[in-house]
Hints:
- By secondary structure, the protein is of the alpha+beta class.
- Helices cover 23% and strands 20% of the residues.
- The chain has helices at 3-8, 42-47, 49-52; strands at residues 19-20, 27-28, 32-33, 39-40, 57-59, 66-68.
- Strand 3 (32-33) and strand 4 form a beta hairpin.
- The termini are far apart.
Amino acid sequence: MSEEKKKKGSYRRRKIGKFICHGCKKEFPYCFSCTCGFMICEECFKENQWGLSNGPTWVCPDCERIHMT
Length: 69
């Protein structure tokens, strides 16, 4: 395989699929999601905002990565 083809396919693509909330286990068209696979719907996020968010950012409870809201 040539170097050019390796470089082309090396970037990450978001998986197009289902968003299933880790809180309520329901499927949604959109969820707050992390690259580790954690997903949470807006309703569950609002309920748990005190532990996940400090304003403009939220922290993934699984891997502790910081994300913008």
